[in-house]
Amino acid sequence: MQEADIKFLEDSFKKYYFEHFDLIRVPERTFEREFGYQKFNSGMTRHISIKDDKELHLLFMQNIPSDVYCSNAYYSFPNLPMNEKDWKEADLIFDIDAKDLNLSCRENHTVSICNECKQVSKISEHCLKCNSTKIEKKSLPCKNCIDSSKTEVSKLSEILIDDLAIDQENIHVYFSGNEGFHVYVYGSQFQQIGSRERSELADYIMFNGIIPETFGMKKFKPNRSSFPDFNEKGWRGRFSKQVFSSKSKRSKIISELLVNGYSSFQKTLDNVSENIGVKIDPNVTMDIHRIFRLPGSINSKSGLTKILCKNLTKFDPYSEASFLSDESVEVFANCPIEFSLKNKKFGPFINEKVTVPTFAAVYMVCKKLATIA
């Protein structure tokens, strides 16, 4: 990233943190958390211990970070190396990202940026100008991406509440600041479980490793199979609703399942898994030493804020998570995809000098689709 672009982003981010520090969620038991941050064009600084909001504010003002992180884990000595921290427990966190949902819309709003000649083009595996394969892909997520991610969040919340007996008030949903959502579970019975158990929990939520016997299908005596009722709780009930669709069709479909046999039933389960399993990133959930983007901080991939969603259904990240100024800025933009922020449309821009509000300029610069003029 060019020096002028870095200075522009740092100035914009610093102003945000000065004016909107109230949006930063200073975590409970702050002194037991590990903090970390990155600066533009530099690596990660970790193993930082912070006592309170004043020290956190000082970190923002002194370093002007591109990204700030905080552990979901609680430690006795958060500033020491990992093997000396003395891990106590960790909040449960789930990551749902539009890029993992296999959405057909993605190709319409993803661009390829050549790392050799900087050519920007619609999604391609090689540069259309110099033929290099050193390609970086950037997505400008659309409404469908966000809505699809919301659907996964709703599915996850249902499982957490109905199957795992987690109080709804202990589930906090945050827009990640880019393409999805982070779901935090505080103060649950799962606080002290380790990485292996969290991996198993992720498998349960994703509907992984399901076998026909769980749903009543017997391999050797199929005529004795007993399938779940339509109103059963948990995965058996979800399976029933997905496969039978209504109580009236249950008997007919069961007959078909028995005729088709065990192997066919396994394929049915695999297909059902794609629809009713929650598409979370299991590596995030199982990691008990990870540091996560701090709520209220800016995501340097977009210039948008990681913010609490009080009403997920109505939440619009492109208006509610955009807090940077409206001050006009001149940029050289090469952004072939139209995008909307704060209810205003921008682009497409093809190698042109344009004047846009700071929040739109930051968005494009963060996506490597513009530079300061």
Automatic annotation (TrEMBL):
The UniProt entry, under InterPro entries, shows: DNA_primase_S, DNA_primase_ssu_PriS
Q: List the active site.
A: D95, D97, D281
Membrane-traversing stretches: none
Q: Which cofactor does it need?
A: Mg(2+); Mn(2+)
Q: Name one GO molecular function term.
A: metal ion binding
Q: Which family does it belong to?
A: Belongs to the eukaryotic-type primase small subunit family.
Subunit comment for this entry?
Heterodimer of a small subunit (PriS) and a large subunit (PriL).
Q: What is this protein called?
A: DNA primase small subunit PriS
